[in-house]
Amino acid sequence: MWVMTLPLNALRAFEVSARHLSFTRAGLELNVTQAAVSAQVKNLEARLGVPLFRRLPRGLALTDEGHALLPMLSDSFGRLGNILEQFRGGAYREPVTVAAVSTFAVGWLLPRLETFHRDFPFIDLRLMTHNNRVDLAGEGLDFAIRFGQGAWHGTHADPLFEAPLTPMCTPAIARRLSGPRDMLGETLLRSYRSDEWKLWFEAAGAGTIPQPLRGPVLDSSLALAAAAAQGAGIALLPRSMFLHDLQVNRLVQPFAFQVRVGSYWLTQLQSKSVSPAMAQFREWLLREAAAVAQLT
Question: What are phi and psi of 161, to 5 degrees?
């Protein structure tokens, strides 16, 4: 194909010049002279047989042909750059993109990433957080770690481990509590799952509680924990995600009762093909989660 004979340097010179609409600024980006860029573009125009720029007294303007060519070239060079970036350090690194519930990401996954990177240096793990609302296809994700019952349409879900909820608060608030119902005199911080406090009081054998509860609603356990640590009230939190806060006495657990309302799950689209790096990440995560489950 004749297109394969087009010089890559000339295509790159055009793409950069088109972004800047300046041969001078393109030369600065490419670390060559303005004259060299101009010559490369003229060579490309000659090979294509069409003008790509209109040369104006003060800069450049794209022709219709230039407008047609630029998006494809920009996308191609961007894709090429992403692939070549995976060879940084002299070895190919395959990306795996994971979105995780923020509480799980901070409280469980991040402390284990150093070990993961040591054992799997060829995997370029890309981690994002969410608050249990995620679009695997729309966000281009390989995996999403969610909290719930494991039923999400069009996805395969592997159970990781349960994370039962228990009240946590500052030591000062805990000293005012002699039994579960004493908490009704305090501010009860709430999540978007409105029945959690009701279920906890029932599990603790404390009977029914007045409805509706009053107290601020926060959208993640991290926000609930931060508010509780500042004395804003009592939060229902997954104890296993906040062990450090308990160890340093930033938060305390006034009562031992816990309620199970869901589990953490590793999810992926059923229609997505699994790369070797994805398979390695899944195997590693399930193994680490199984070790945690045996300790609880």
Answer: -165, 160
